[in-house]
Amino acid sequence: MESEKAVKATPAELESLGAVKATPVATSDETTVGQMEVETAFVKGEVQPPAYRDFPFAILFFIQIIGVAATAIALGPAAVQGQGEDDEASSNTNTGNEDKVELGEFLVFLTMAFVGSIVVTMGFFRLIVNYAHSMVKIAFFMAPVTFGFVTLVFLASGDDISAFFGFAAVGVSVISLCLYFYYKQFMPFAAANLKTAMTAIRSNSGLYILAVFFVLLMYAWTAVWSFAVAGILYKDSQKEKVKCSDLGLDDDQLYPEGSMCEQGPNGFQVFLLLLCFYWTQQVIQNTLHVTTAGTIGSWWFTPMGDASICGREIVDSFHRATTYSFGSICFGSLLVALMQVLEQMARNQRNRRGNHLLLCILQCLLHLLRGVIEYFNSWAFVYVGLYGYDYITAGKNVLNLFRQRGWGTFISDRLVFRVLLMCNLGIAALSGCVALLVDMTMGSTFQGDSKVIAFFVGFVLGLLVSNTGLFVVESAVRSCIVCFAESPAEFDEAHPDLSEEMKSGWAEAYPTVWASQVSIAPTTTRTDPATVTTATNIV
């Protein structure tokens, strides 16, 4: 039986009631106005007009960049010259031709191993798209399988430590099995999220190229920062030595009474140097995150993406991230950088003064606080990329998301994270195997235990390549979760097949909420300046 209910309200009254839309993902917290149910709990985000937000933090960020670069230019050459003189004094008698041959072989090996890592990474991405649900399940059993494999290796070698790994494998298997059944109902929604994110990235493949650019930018920044630090350390090394006790080094075992130490940078210099490094690192990473979120948001509402390297959606999102939203990125990144610096300094104090209990507790608390802020930022920057909010407003929207959507958002995100971690390690291991095959084909590229070194180099290359690609995937997954929470109807129009998978996964994860909402389906909505008329079908 169907009946049509019409309700008229002024724009002001409509605004006070909330969004007039009943969607499958809405919460059950509703208000009845006449015969129509209006959702009031969740406030949908709105695209903000172009404006430079939190710009004082962007100005401060550029000031520290200029300061580090100036220090590198002023003090770095002297440090390099001093190091060069030391190297010349201790140089060996190897001929230049031999060095050239070894360098050439190494570059060929490195290039082939790098290409192999890219191929392996692309293969894993294809697996995620085609077998997302299976990958989520497999992720729960990778740890016990790994422990079991290590146990067999040590058993074969006759090592007594195999018993320890055997017990660990049993314990991890039991825990993984319990977690599997606890999270089983959330897996379809997590798998649908992951598949949707991978499809969106494949439709905007230029994000991978942009990710590589940011990795190179990070390497360049590390080089400049290291140049500046080397210059400061070299300048301080020219000073006369002082008593270690005068520098606060009071550990009698490490620094006996009367021992002399070089004067390094003071505590304030160390703090600033570490803050500059971590802040810039976070800004580079979060700029890519915001750009990805904006690109996914554009794809969400359109049937087709732009697979070109410089697609319009990517260019527009990158422009917003590096202009209007750059201050917000710098603001949020500064908070994490401060926690990283304090944690690093607490760790250094532990190393210098021994494992003091209070310092251990302090480091643990700082580590936990940093993790919380980093995770909060990962969601806040999604709102910055999607809508152009300032950092504080984006944070409020994150709190509203978790409050209204519940911990299901967190659980789905963590399940995807397990898959990405599994893929990261798998890509690294297979890349190491590829590098090993390359080394065996070319002959021993390295001196000594060439096979171990080749595998290690390939493993590290695989980690670097996969980390770059999987960071984009993680950003896309969180963007899809937010977009599905706020705009499921638009997604259903643009991408009906993926939308159906997302809705099915949500229905399986939250059957009670789904049942309470599925009976209300919007059919027509008409808006004019004075009144709003909404018709709904009551099933």
Provide structural commentary.
It is a single chain. The protein is globular, with a radius of gyration of 28 Å. It is mainly alpha-helical and 539 residues long. It is built from 18 helices and six strands. The chain has two domains: 76 residues, no CATH class; 375 residues, no CATH class. The chain is 73% helix and 5% strand. The strands form three sheets. Strands 1-2 form a two-stranded antiparallel ribbon. Strands 3-4 form a two-stranded antiparallel ribbon. It has a two-stranded antiparallel ribbon with strand order 5-6. The N terminus and C terminus are likely disordered.
Task: Give the rounded overall mean pLDDT.
Answer: 74
How large is the share of residues in beta strands?
5-15%
Identify the overall geometry: globular
Number of helices: 18
Provide the low-confidence segments as ranges: 1-41, 89-101, 515-539
Q: Largest sheet, if any?
A: 2 strands, antiparallel
Q: Roughly how many Å is the radius of gyration?
A: 28 Å
Q: Name the helix and strand elements from N-terminus to C-terminus, one letter apiece.
A: HEEHHHHHHHEEHHHHHHHHHHEE
Which descriptors would you attach to this protein?
539 residues, mainly alpha, 2 domains, two-stranded antiparallel ribbon, 18 helices, disordered N terminus, disordered C terminus
